[in-house]
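Data availability (excerpt). The following record was deposited with the supplementary files.
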Amino acid sequence: MSEFPRLKTGAVLQYPAQHASEYSTTVLRFVDGSEQRVSNYATPIHRWVVRLSVLDETELHLFREFFRALSGAVQNFSFTDPWDGTTYPSCSLEDSELAEQLVSPSSATTSLRVRENRD
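Predicted structure:
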């Protein structure tokens, strides 16, 4: 399994960045008006938006090849959360296309949405 690429600085992403935790709960309502709540996941599902707006041509090529090697959103990879350093072994991309822009050899942008998978 592959690992999400790092920038030349060793960072996983650039700021501003976003991350979120998704919880899923089923609410059972009874005739007497009481409720019982059941968690559908043992732990939350994590998501990250990796915006890369200050890339050079080499770094953009690295992410382009990573995307191609995964066949877009098909294959899994490991991702290290930059907020707490936790490595999530089963993640995938949410997008089937890589939006990228090369302005000059030293100025490129792209964005990737990463989602933790449940095994």
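Summary of structural features: The chain has a mean pLDDT of 84.
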